[in-house]
Amino acid sequence: MYTMEIKINGGLRINKKNKIILSVYCSPFARYLLSNKINFVDIKFLKDSIELSNGNFHRICIEREKEGHPLAVMFITKLISKNLKEKLINLRKQKPVTIILKDFISEKELRSYNNRLNCIEPKIGLNIPSSDLIKLGCHISCFRQKNGIWYRFNIRNRILEKIANEKTKISLCRKGNDFFIVKDSEGKELKLYKNPKGHPLTYVQISKEFLNDEETELFKKNRRAISFKAFISYKEFNLDLSQFFFDKYERELALALTKEGLKIGIPEMGKREADILLPDIKSQIEITKIMPVKIKKEKNNAHGEGVHINARLCEGFLRVQRNLTNKFFVVLHQEWKEHGWVRDTCNLVGPAVVPIFTNFNEGWAEKVAKEINSHTLK
Q1: In which order are the strands placed within the sheet that holds 40-45?
Q2: Which CA distances in Å does 325 have to 218, 228, 350?
Q3: 174 strand-pairing partners
Q4: Over the stretch 199-235, which tens digit does the pLDDT of each residue have?
Q5: Looking at the DSSP assignment, which residues form a beta bridge with residue 229?
Q6: Is the Cβ–Cβ distance between 181 and 135 less than 8 Å?
Q7: CB 107 within 8 A of CB 114
Q8: Which of 145, 257, 277, 368 could crosslink 265 through cysteines, CB 3.0-4.6 Å?
């Protein structure tokens, strides 16, 4: 028998039929009731709270069970005083109330029924070779509730989707403005959310101890999110980076590049980068499968589909000029080679931009990877 008292939030409201409903806003408690098939409790009204304890007096109903966020509610019209009922009628909205769980469950055991967010504390100590690290964009967001402020570590990338699906436990450590994700058998699992378009977001609640004073002040001034860089070891998590590119052709070329011995990188979400990165030589690769369907060969400037080709070549040139990359490769369909303006543009933006023509037929990726590798050796 537990004698520890646990305080949680609740609410009293009156429905359209003038029935008084007590709601217990604690999904772990509702999960505990469902798991242990507890359908009745004893209810005691105290001066400033309501006490729930083991018993057989009042029936419990569970709402929102299918949504995964069960809510324990009780109809208590006959239990409350006439004075309190009149107050609720006049109030016309829910009245917050403190609920005390007595002789039910320990606080530690109650937390085991929490399927929401797990909190990660800062972890110190890091010994990962920089050559094994993958750089990803991340951000920390702030959420405000009546019981305080809490923080969440978020990454939008398919790499973390795999780790979340495999339920691999992780911990975080921070050095300066960089976060490092490491395997930890005593750590926490990442949670996964996908928007209607299928784009993943992985997240986990973190301790406020991760934040410095300046960041804490920004959140206090209603800042909603702060961006950082995150690093993860592809060797530690046994990751094949070629499988995490969004497009089929990107995956094929990425795999061929790794077979050529080139280290590949995935562009950061929200950052204007090419399709595939070559971090060791600070170069980028753009792949475009667009073919010249409507545009005529004798046209000496970009029209129709050619606008896209022209943009890729010129954008690559600007990135090199701005020192964002050392070399920019554009992989495009070989039919563009027959257009004079394409050849002229390639001559203008070279050698910073390297056009590579292919037919995208079987074995194209291996041939392109070899040509890219030959340029990296120069």
Answers
A1: 58-59, 40-45, 49-54, 95-102, 5-14, 20-24, 71-75, 61-63
A2: 33, 21, 14
A3: 179
A4: 889 999 888 888 998 999 999 888 999 999 999 998 8
A5: 137, 178
A6: no
A7: no
A8: 277
